[in-house]
Amino acid sequence: MAPAVDLTKVLSLDKRLRAAAVINGAGETKERKARKGVKLILSPEEFEDFALSVALRAGITRKWDKKIGRTERVIIFGEKLKMFVFFLREDTLVVTAEPDISTGTSKRIASLIGPI
Predict the structure, then answer these.
(1) Is residue 29 within 8 Å of 21, Cβ to Cβ?
(2) Which of 67, 115, 60, 109 is nearest to 85 (CA)?
(3) Domain hosting residue 54, numbered range
(4) What whole-number distance in Å separates Cα of residue 16 and Cα of residue 89?
(5) Domain-located, residue 38
(6) Is residue 15 part of a domain?
(7) Can you spell out the DSSP letters for 2-58?
(8) In 3-state terms, what secondary structure has residue 50?
(9) Does the pLDDT at position 1 exceed 80?
């Protein structure tokens, strides 16, 4: 079973973190939280489609773990968002942030969620 992730604590690490979600291997959102006052870019329906694509990518990434080693996290640089994607044991954590946030924030999130 994947470790529990406290999304409220994750979002409290930096005011530029916008939202966080835990997605299962089937692409279903198990939990999602947004920072108060943040206008989300994706509608709930769009986020579900996005979550499915994240789950598919996680599965493809895990396919290569034996050859290249386990992937812990991926950072996506978007024009409107920066995304930190963490591959947990069974689930995937996606954290969205303002595009100007430091990539070092991903290390702070990783230390908060513990061994993955």
Answers:
(1) yes
(2) 109
(3) 7-113
(4) 27
(5) yes
(6) yes
(7) PPP--HHHHHTT-TTEEEEEEE-TTS-EEEEEE-TTPPPSS-HHHHHHHHHHHHHHH
(8) helix
(9) no
Tokens of 45: 């329906």
Domain count, the chain: 1
Summarize pLDDT for 55-91 with one digit per residue, the tens.
Answer: 788 778 888 888 998 888 889 999 999 999 998 888 9
The alpha carbon of 110 is separated from its chain's Cα centroid by a whole number of angstroms, namely 11
Bridge partner list, 22: 31, 93
Residue 108 falls inside a structural domain: yes
Q: Which tokens hold the place of 17?
A: 């973190």
- Are the C-beta atoms of residues 3 and 88 closer than 8 Å to each other? yes
Of the candidates 57, 8, 49, 48, the residue with the CA atom closest to the CA atom of residue 30: 48
Q: What is the CATH number of the domain that holds 22?
A: 3.30.450.30
Report yes or no: 73 and 99 within 8 Å, Cβ to Cβ: no
Backbone torsions φ then ψ of 33, nearest 5 degrees: -135, 145
* Residues in CB range of 67: below 8 A, 6 or more apart: none
What are the structure tokens assigned to 1, written together? 């079973």
- Helix (H, G, I), strand (E, B), or coil: what is residue 63? helix
Q: Considering the chain, what is the average pLDDT of its residues?
A: 89
